Amino acid sequence: MQLRRAYERLADLIRELAKFGIIGAIAFVIDTGGFNLFHYGLHWGPLTSKVLSTVAAASFAYLGNRLWTFRHREQSGMAREYFLFFLLNGIGLLIGLLCIGFTQYTLGLTDPLSTNIANLVGTGLGTLFRFWSYKKWVFLAVAEVTEEVPRELPGEARRVV
């Protein structure tokens, strides 16, 4: 029975990871494509372009993860989840920036290959952080009911009418 439960948990994790990866890949295309469209197509500044493409990609990722990847998890309110989702995306972005900054400014490796490797490492670590943190704080597990839910508040007697 323990082995079967472990297998089911592993299968659930693999399904979540696959869905998370698909949503992430589409969000990556939205981010990269949006940045290039805004910056090179519309000739907006690079920072404005990156902010807009990241907000669009993160919004898509939130909806995709809420409605597909983690739809079986507890829903604790869209405003709360959306806020935490963007906060945790900011931390994930910081992980990537630290990897790039360390490579360029500490190691002095500024060539395109080193920068892109640092970016991939940062994206990978940021993605692992996001997956873990979304499951822990944004898309909460459904609470298992182990006892009957009381019908009145503790210490409150039922009134007879």
Describe the overall structure:
- The protein is an all-alpha fold and 161 residues long.
- 75% of the residues lie in helices and 0% in strands.
- The protein is built from four helices and no strands.
- It has helices spanning 2-41, 46-69, 78-106, 112-138.
- Helix 1 (2-41) runs antiparallel to helix 2 (46-69) and helix 3 packs antiparallel against helix 4.
- The longest helix has 40 residues, at 2-41.
- 20% of the residues are buried.
- The mean pLDDT is 78.
Give a quick rundown of the structure.
The chain has helices at residues 2-41, 46-69, 78-106, 112-138.
List keywords for this structure.
161 residues, mainly alpha, globular
- Strand content bin: under 5%
- The helix fraction, in percent, is over 70%
Would you report the number of β strands?
A: 0
Shape: globular
Order of helix and strand elements from N to C terminus: HHHH
The largest sheet, given as strand count, sense and whether it forms a barrel, is: none
Give the termini distance in whole angstroms.
49 Å
Count, helices: 4
* Low-confidence blocks of residues: none
Structural class: mainly alpha
Radius of gyration: 21 Å
Mean pLDDT: 78
SSE diagram, text form:
Blueprint: H1 2-41, H2 46-69, H3 78-106, H4 112-138
Helix pairs in contact: 1-2, 3-4
